[in-house]
Design goal:
This protein is mostly beta strands and 280 residues long. 6% of the residues lie in helices and 65% in strands. The protein contains two helices and 14 strands, in the order βαββββββββββββαβ. The strands form two sheets. It has a twelve-stranded antiparallel β-barrel with strand order 2-3-4-5-6-7-8-9-10-11-12-13. A two-stranded antiparallel ribbon has the order 1-14. Strand 3 and strand 4 form a beta hairpin. The N and C termini lie close together (6 Å).
Length: 280
């Protein structure tokens, strides 16, 4: 038998114009355009609010992410991610931690196409030494239209507890629109759906999120704010989980947010507002 523990998490990515010298412009352009390692690290702090009919609860949340993109050649890329999310509620702490790998082919002027895999572990107070984890795999793609990026993912996964042969199947999908008002000013909108099979029942989650990010010109530093709403429903019961965060990002190997999106660590993964691990 499984029992659910309510937890945490998510949290929530540039081309610049280069002045070309009249002398040997081809050599300079080739050096600038050559594929190179790039990425970023970011951290956030915020609040989590759970509302159910006739009741509500709040918590403090914090976390961080690091992503690095490794170009194999001018088109093929491998990106690695690492992340941690934590929640403090009524004197107790719950957390999720893990990573992801993406492999994809990208033409910065048109689209990117590939696949990804993630693994996440869960822990915290009252876990009684149990090791709870889940994994997901699936395809992903991006399409570029000038200053707009369209991003889609579909995934299948399993929730598992160490020492148990039982598991829960998960399915999901998400779509993201990134709009660059300027090379260093980015706005995101996201919609997603996921479901967890609970025997004859299903826990369904509909997600909506908005994010704004600004990178200070000539520096690697960006600031961002994000709001995400997860609407959960199962067995005729529903609840809304709101998450508000602010954060800071430090990038390397890119000059602007648009450059980062088209040539750097452009992939990410869905991170729900809650953790739903299970114990015996």
């Amino acid at each position: 038998m499984y029992r659910f523990i309510l937890g945490v998490a998510i949290a929530a990515t540039a081309t610049s114009a280069f002045a070309a010298d009249a002398v040997a412009p081809i050599v300079m352009d080739q050096e600038v355009a050559a594929p190179h390692i790039s990425g970023y690290v970011e951290a956030y702090l915020g609040g989590l609010y759970v509302t159910v009919p006739g009741d509500h609860a709040s918590a403090t949340t914090a976390g961080g992410t690091g992503r690095v993109n490794f170009p194999i050649d001018s088109r093929w890329n491998v990106q690695t991610d690492a992340f941690v999310d934590s929640l403090w509620v009524q004197g107790q702490n719950f957390y999720g931690y893990g990573g992801a790998v993406h492999g994809y082919w990208r033409d910065p002027s048109s689209y990117a196409l590939g696949g990804f895999a993630t693994i996440t572990g869960y822990g915290g107070d009252n876990f009684s030494g149990e090791h709870i984890y889940n994994f997901t795999v699936g395809p992903e793609a991006q399409v570029y239209f000038g200053n707009v990026t369209l991003y889609g993912q579909v995934d299948y996964g399993q929730l598992r507890a160490s020492g148990s042969s039982e598991h829960l199947d998960t399915w999901g999908g998400r779509g993201v629109v990134r709009y660059f008002a300027q090379d260093n000013l980015r706005f995101d909108g996201e919609l997603g759906y996921s479901t967890i099979s609970l025997g004859g029942e299903h826990l369904n989650t509909v997600t909506g999120a908005l994010q704004a990010m600004y990178r200070f010109s000539g520096t690697p530093l960006s600031v961002f704010g994000r709001y995400q709403l997860d609407h959960l429903s199962a067995g005729g019961i529903s609840e809304n989980i709101h998450k508000y965060v602010i954060g800071v990002r430090a990038s390397f190997g890119s000059d602007t947010l648009l450059d980062e999106d088209r040539n750097g660590a452009t992939m990410d993964t869905y991170r729900p507002n809650i953790i739903l691990p299970f114990g015996g």
